Structure formats: C-alpha cells, structure tokens
Amino acid sequence: MNETYDAVVVGGGAAGLAGALTLARARRSVLVVDAGEPRNARAGHVHNFLTRECTSPTELLEIGRAEVSRYGGEFVTARVEGATREDDGFVVVLDDRRRVRARRLLVATGLVDELPDLPGLAEWWGRGVLHCPYCHGWEVRDRRVGVLATSPFALQQAELWRQWSPNVLLLLHGVPRPTDEEAERLAARGIAVVPGPAAAVEVANDTLTGVRLASGEVVPLDVIVVVSRLTARSTLLKQLGLKPVDVEVGGHVIGSQVPADPNGATAVPGVWVAGNVADVRAQVLTAAASGLTAAAAINADLVAADTRDAVVEHRRQMQTLLDEAAWEERYRSQPAVWSGNPNPQLVAEAAGLTPGRALDVGSGEGADAIWLAERGWRVTAVDVSATALARGAAHAEEVGAEVASRIEWLRADLREHPLAEEAYDLVSSQYLHLPGDARRALFARLAAAVAPGGTLLVVGHDPSDLWMTSHRMHFPELMFTAEEVAACLDPARWRVLVAETRPRAKVDSEGRDSTYRDAVLVARRTG
Ligand SMILES: Cc1cc2nc3c(=O)[nH]c(=O)nc-3n(C[C@H](O)[C@H](O)[C@H](O)COP(=O)(O)OP(=O)(O)OC[C@H]3O[C@@H](n4cnc5c(N)ncnc54)[C@H](O)[C@@H]3O)c2cc1C
C-alpha cells in the first residue's frame, strides 16, 4: 500500500474489473478498491452477457477478480472516501484511514437505483420488483406484470414490457391519468390502467403476490416494475471537481451520470470514469467494455508521461556523458572504472606498428597509454578527468620508471584544446562518443594531428550494437560507423585500411555472453 500505483480503480464491478484487467495485462501496477456493493447484487443471475449467460453476479465478479489477480492486480475491500491531487497523481483516502497513491484514477463506482417510496418495494428489489426487461424480461415472460407509474416515463416502460408479456398493467401512483392519446395506445396493446395510488407490496408464503391499493383493493401480480431514478455514485468525483448531469429520455429525467469523452476521460486530468457512473444505460457487458476502453486510454496517457520523463532523463544522461565534472565524479566515486586492460582493437591494430609518437584520446585510467609505452611509444594521454589521469600515472609508475617516463598525462577537453597538426604517428580514439557535429569536428582535428605516414585509429560503438545485443548504452545519436568516419577523410591524403563493423565477445553487465559490435577505422596518412 506504500507504493504509488499506476492506477487505482475505485469500484470493483464489471467496469472496474475490466479496466483493472486491461491495466494489469498492460503491465501497470493496479489496485482495485471496492466496497462490495455491485448494483445487481440482489439479482439471481446476469443475463445478456454473451458466453456468461445466467451466471450469478457474485460468481461473475469472482471470476473477474481471479483474472485480474492472475496478472498481478491487487484488491482492497474498502470504500474510497476522498482523493486529492498530488504532483502528477492522486492520494486516495480509504474509509479505514489508509492512503494510497495513484498516478491515474479510474472511477467505476456505479449508480444507485432510487426506488419509489412504497412499503415492501426495497425488500423485493431484484427479485419480484424489477426495472429492466432486458435483465429479467425473458424470465418473467407471460407473467402478470404491473408497472408502477411514478413518472410519465412509466408509460413507455409499460409498452416495452408488453413485448415480454401480454399481461401488463399500469398502476397509477402519483401521476395523472394518461391523456386520451396515451390511453388509446395502451388500450391498443391491451395494457389496463389501474387508478392508484398503491399502498404496499402484497406477499404470501415468501412470494410477491401483488399490490394493495390505498383503496384496500389488491391487484394480483407476479412482478412489479418500477422506474428507479438512476443516480450516479459521484461523491468522489464531485470532490475532484466533476458534476453529474441529468439524463433525459423522451423529455423525462431518468437519472444522472458524470460526463466524459468516448474513452471515459473526464474534464479533470488524470481521472477516467467507466460503467454506470458515466452511463446510466450501461449493462454488465457494456460496463465492462467501457472499463477496457478507459483503461487503454489511461495506459496511453501513462505511456506519454513515461516517455516525457524518459526524454528528460535521456537528456540528463547524455549531458553526463559529455560533461567534464560528471566524468570526474564518476572516476572519484569508484576505485576503478575500467578493467585495466588495453582496448582489444588497439591491441589488434597497433601491435604491428613501428613505435613513434602517439596521442591517446580519452585515455581514462591509462591502460592503452601504458600498453603503448611498454612497446616503445612516446604517448600523450589526454583525458578530462584529473582523477583518471592520476590513476594512469600511478599505474605507469607501478609498471616501471621507463614506461612512466614515456607518457605525458594531459588534462584537457580536446573539443576546445588546441592540437598540434601532423604531430603524431598514431592517433588512437577508443570509444570516445560525441553527438554528430561535435564528433565530426573532433575527428577532423584528430586526423589533422596525424603525421604523414602515420595512423588514425578510431574505435566506437557501432549503431548496430543496439539491435544486435542487449546493450547497456542506448544513445544512437552518439554512435557512429567506421564508414561514416572514413567518408570524412580526404582520399587524396588518406588510405583507409580498415572500415568495418567488428564483433567483439563480451560478458555483459548481467553476466550473459554477448557480442558487441565495434566500429573500427584504420587509416594511413599518405600525404
Ligand atoms: C436488479 C438488477 C439486475 C440486473 N441484471 C442485469 C443483467 O441481467 N444483465 C446486465 O447486463 N445488467 C444487469 N443489471 C445492470 C448491472 O447491474 C449494471 O450494468 C452493472 O452492475 C454496472 O457495472 P458497474 O461496474 O458500472 O457498477 P457496479 O456493478 O454497481 O459496481 C460498482 C462497484 O463500486 C463500488 N463502489 C461504489 N462507490 C465506491 C467507493 N467510494 N469506494 C469503493 N468502492 C465503491 C460498489 O460497492 C460496487 O461494487 C442489473 C441491475 C440491477 C439493479
């Protein structure tokens, strides 16, 4: 509960669970907070849910929870009492005083069916007292159905229920008699109009048997149909600044819902809605579908946010790679950054060269410079880090005074430091990575520093490394091919001996055998 979830889903009915499933399968951390009062709890079965026809509401939700759990979704049985915005997300407060953090909220709190005030109705809700012919019509087909008319909308309901049963009555309960035109329609469908008002639900042997009128007369019925007012459970959403709006059918207000776009996004950034709270007409299947849609939109929003954050971090890391102080810090923070072995492409390409003057560019802790000096080269080892150079100098002393005397350690940033032209018989740049223009400018100056007859050796991480290996460095803008470097050399003054992508076996940072691909350029200065 201490972590920040990618999403907290408030309400674990069909909409919330479908949203949680989609989010969990999208590898998002998701917590479902559910108070355990789904709207259809009183119904025996769920109907019109393709492939799950006639499943009990409890069983359907159990299956849903198991599916969400399978992908790592978590559950808490509690009521969400409030949520406040914090940074880019929310702090969600539960009724047991626990708090959870969420980057995004999916509110699927459903609606409340507000029943007409008639003794006995609430007790029989979902059994003998029904509201929706699509949910129950088939099961009570041809039975005696009394539509309790508490609003003018009841006339439409009576006509609708007539599709399922020829025995439909309209019980007037606080509404005027139908107009002549309405009475004609009802008569045409064989729907009798019973003057009210009703006084109570009649029950015998634990079975609903009818409605007792205020007059004392009893109307025998198997089913009472009510027009419940469908009120969005929107307390939490109101706290977040969202107001429900009335829903009208045929000019009659039937309830309220919280406005959202087709993907469930509300006017409050970071808050999505799904199911009955956003659509009073949603059935279980469509509530679930809206949960899926909203969850996909939430994931897309998080992907966009993750990418924005990643770009900031990428730029920071890039800056670190190019920054003098950052390199110094990197060397200072650990006793050794590099292996102490000379770079393999230097060994491969310089072993056969006649020693002379060498420039080791980006010398780090000096392994290449020492290797060259051991072979008789007089080396200028250049790096931006004083710590790295000091380590190199110390290692050289350990190897021997003669080797040490052949190396000059120079702290400089070669992007700015002047370089003598035609001064070196070997210029070696091993894994020095700069962005495009800066790289081309530096390599041109390195090439100019090579004396006639001398060798330019440039080695770097080839861009194909990114798609060939599990790579530790992902800065395509810093990588280059040997061909790219070769193309910048004047053919009148250079002979390119090697320009290739060369595989190099290496155990990666996670201990796996990997093959890295180096860009290797070897060019001889001819003029
Ligand atoms: C009697 C009856 C029978 C029905 N039969 C059918 C049928 O056969 N077929 C069909 O398709 N549809 C049927 N429906 C409609 C069906 O119930 C809804 O379409 C469906 O429940 C909507 O799903 P939902 O996820 O939006 O909301 P709900 O299923 O109502 O789930 C909302 C959940 O949110 C929780 N919650 C609310 N507020 C909070 C809070 N602050 N903190 C934490 N949790 C909270 C609730 O406890 C609840 O568990 C029936 C409805 C009724 C009333």
Overview of the structural elements:
- By secondary structure, this protein is of the alpha/beta class.
- It is rod-shaped.
- It has 3 domains: 4-110 and 231-308, FAD/NAD(P)-binding domain (3-Layer(bba) Sandwich); 116-227, FAD/NAD(P)-binding domain, CATH 3.50.50; 329-525, Rossmann fold (3-Layer(aba) Sandwich).
- The mean pLDDT is 95.
- The strands form 6 sheets. Strands 1, 2, 3, 4, 5, 6 and 19 form a 7-stranded mixed beta sheet that branches. A 7-stranded mixed beta sheet has the order 22-21-20-23-24-26-25. A 5-stranded parallel beta sheet has the order 8-15-9-10-11, covered by helices on one side.
- Strand 13 and strand 14 form a beta hairpin.
- It is built from 15 helices and 26 strands.
- Helices cover 30% and strands 30% of the residues.
- Helix 1 runs parallel beside helix 7.
- Flavin-adenine dinucleotide is lined by residues 10-16, 33-40, 42-43, 46-49, 79-80, 108-110, 113, 126, 135, 233, 236, 275-276, 282-285, 287.
